[in-house]
Amino acid sequence: MGEKLLQHKHCRNCGKAVNIDDKYCNDRCHDEHFAMLRKKRNQLYLLMILAMGLMAITVLLGM
Ligand SMILES: [Zn+2]
Fold first, then answer.
1. 8 falls in which pLDDT band (50, 70, 90)?
2. C-beta separation of 20 from 3 below 8 A
3. Quick one: which of 12, 14, 23, 39 has the most CB atoms within 10 Å?
4. What protein residues have CB closer than 5 angstroms to ion ligand 1?
5. 32 vs 54: CA distance, rounded Å
6. pTM
7. What is the DSSP string of the chain?
């Protein structure tokens, strides 16, 4: 058990201990994590577009 504790990682999605070679405890966690990353990225894009729109409006109003 000591060896197992020394060489393990945590699932990137649920945090469960997984084999050192694995990133996720199962395929579902892998899919869920990627879906979450995609969602986060989309939110970031949306925020950037909103910020740019706000900046454009500010510049247009300033003219
Ligand atoms: Zn997991």
1. confident
2. no
3. 12
4. 11, 13-14, 16, 25, 29
5. 33
6. 0.63
7. -HHHHHSEEE-TTT--EEETT-SSSSHHHHHHHHHHHHHHHHHHHHHHHHHHHHHHHHHHHH-
Q: How far is the CA of 33 from the centre of ligand 1 (A)?
A: 9
Q: Distance, CA 15 to ligand 1 centroid (Å)?
A: 6
pLDDT digits (tens, 9 = 90+) for 11-54: 999 999 999 999 999 999 999 999 999 999 999 999 999 999 99
Domain ranges of the chain: 2-62
